[in-house]
Amino acid sequence: MNIIALLTDFGTEDGFVGAMKGVIKSINPSVDIIDISHNIEPFNIFQASLVLYSVYKYYPPYTVFIVVVDPGVGTEREPIIVKTTKYIFVLPNNGLLSFVEKEEKIEDVFKIENERFLLKRVSETFHGRDIFSPVAAYISRGVPLYSFGSRLSSNKLIRIKIPEKKIIDGKIIGSIIGFDRFGNAITNIDRVPPKFTATYRNYRMNRINKNFLEGDKDKPNLIVGSTGFLEVFLPKSSFKDRFKAEVGEEIVIEEKR
Fold first, then answer.
1. Is 85 in the same domain as 180?
2. CA–CA separation, 95 vs 4, rounded Å?
């Protein structure tokens, strides 16, 4: 386990991420630290869960992920370690693995309790530095997961609600679940029929574009994005801004016969 990957809503202005990296390197100088992103919208657990889902599978087996989007820091929510078939996640128990659970089998969950592996805390508001970073660093050095605390049932994991597409009268009823930094709308639709008509508001679309330069510059277009989900976009422009699109808006797919 030579890689620790970081995903937070800390930004890069205040030194929070730098403090975490300092703790990790002090415990395991040889570990590689990779930044996934620190620009998650503050407190947005859903967005962090989706971003994590879109990238974790491209990391080598046994990568340790520290995921800290933690509006409940300092409360009774549990700091935990989750081991799946291939990976280890160190994070608060607040729903951050909700998307990952769709693909990864959870093998073990441990509550972080052993003070031996934690920093002496000067406050209860920076668990990224004081709990999650040292624990991940010790894991990367080979410390067994049971050393950090008691085992929990996977049923104890908090799950956030993920909007699921529906099939009604043969139509796929999906919705926008998020936006990327380019203003492309990410939906919860992962496949469409070979021939179809997609409806967003009063606009109709009937093909999947191969790249972001294809399509109409003034009307919504469809593409399969890097997450594997269908996305709505405008070439070289922000679909979100142009159409004042919002999370939760429906996309309806109807098969053409």
1. no
2. 20
